[in-house]
User: What shape does this take?
Amino acid sequence: MRRFRPPRLDLRTRVVLFTSAVAIGSLLLLGLSLRALLANSLYNQQSNEAVQEVQRLTATAPNVLTSTVGLSQREAQSELLQQLTTPQGGGPPTFKAVIVRSTELSSQSDGRLSIEQVPPLLVNRVFLRSEIAYVYIDSPIGAGRMLVVGAPIRFDQGDYESYFFYPLTFQEETLNRLTNFLVVVSIGLLAAVIVMAAIFIGRVLRPIQRARDVAEEIASGNLDARIPEITNRDDFGKLAESFNRMTDALAQKIAELENVSNLQARFVSDVSHELRTPLATVRMAADYIHAARANLPPDAQRAAVLLERELERFENLLEDLLEISRFDAGVVRLEPVEVDLGRLLDEVIDAFDPIAHGRRVSVSLEVDTGEGPPLVAADPRRLERVFSNLVKNAIEHTNNGAVRVNAARRGDEVVVKVEDEGEGIPADDLPHIFERFYRADVHRARAAGGTGLGLAIALENVHLHSGSIDVTSEVGQGSRFTVVLPAARPQPEPPVEPAHAGERGPETEPEVVLGG
Assistant: This one.
């Protein structure tokens, strides 16, 4: 299953989102801090006022109960409950309800409340410690929260506990209004922050985006692209000036290198062509001397053989240079015909049989025709040069081993592999072996007469045929070169109409379309 990858955001969007996230976090933290501060202030004010009121009420209650001598405990609790809920000189009480409890009996001003709804922790502090305490609970008679204040009442006729329930409606409404106000203000501020951040960040990043666009144009080959001149003298203006100067210098250096490269290619081409005429004359003289060497002294005979061998090496080098110059000049033209790679490879191997025999190397050819014959549309001369180079290199780098050549058709491609059991190519040299004049083993290449152009020419020829070539190798285990070429697909022969009696139709050959 292909993993989903979210689209990558550009720099401006990421900066705006980061700024917005910081603003949201700051506003959220500020709002929560203000709400917590106001809540603490409101609740503390309510609890202080409630405790003062409870202290005043419970302090005057024993004076009233001294006149209830002879009353039952229930009657005494009723009198106490009435005394606590009766408005006094300071105005009506602010609590919602009150519960009075003795050791055996409890009474309440609101039938919806009971002593079981008072938290046990508060009961223990009031009953055992004889102190005034308070807690916040969820309201048992409606929505919201309530403040419960407990206080003991001590007098000679008995001990009582009183629990006063104060609603927190005003505090909660105030906090809700504050929350709604902060939400509205936060949304407005957030929108303003996003708009301002997008505007200012866009203005800041616009020069960088222009520089990026110009850099992409330069990378695509447009060396005339420049950053528009900026009038201000800030860091971005200086960056634009430095970038344009760097681009001018780069374009100048590239132009100089192209000119030097063209001069070198022209020099190689001109020298190679100019050397062909004197080389032909030297070849004629060398062939004459080599043919007549039997009548020469021994030293002259050795010199004739040496001259013949070195002249052949020089001719190979000259031919390679001419071939490279043709590729550089772009004048190489293909004349493709249908080529059977099995037959071509067999001829190449036969040509190198003496060299393989001298190095005690066995060369084998295997042609797989399971999916069809290995036919390609190609220039046979150029393909012969490609595979000659590969087979020759495989033989020269193998001693007392084997070289295996495999050709097979795979779908719309023909794959040729040349494997050897030689010393292999070091990993450091492997990426460079197709470069011109590169030699993995310089001393051996010179001794063998190599020019360092064979694989480079092979690569150019394979690319010329819309194919590919690569290599895998391991030191001490040998190397494998793989050439992939488009297969040729013969077009079916058109139907031939029968000739009339006495008439002889024209002799036509079936048309073959060559292509990958």
In short: The radius of gyration is 51 Å. The chain has eleven helices and twelve strands. Confidence is low (pLDDT under 50) at residues 442-447, 501-516. The longest strand covers residues 145-155.
